[in-house]
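WARN retry 2 of 3 for item q-0093 after timeout on previous attempt; input resubmitted unchanged.
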Amino acid sequence: MAKEADFQAVFDQLKMVMKAYEDRLEIKADQPGDYSVDTHYRRKDGYQYAFGAVQIKKNYVSYHLVPVYSFPEILEGISPELKKRMQGKACFNFKNLNPEQLEELGELTRKGFERFKAEGFI
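OK item q-0093 returned
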């Protein structure tokens, strides 16, 4: 039970970071343990670009930030602590979250949003 409560608290904090941009994005999922937003941009083949997601998984809470996959230079200068949380090219996994990580992830999300905007995806 404690783990579920902890994961919910982490999910809620991470969701607030992503939610700050939802008025300029399209909400794809907003249900318990699953929140995702896409851009409004569609390629000629109809594929819609995702922006990010927050999901409660079995052993952690994941924070997917697609702009860092598309533009990995956004990750330059991130802290070793946040880098350790990376799984793959665009996902960060958390069992718990400290204020410094939350703040840094917020800044990384802002950079990603601005880069997608500059590229015309938002």
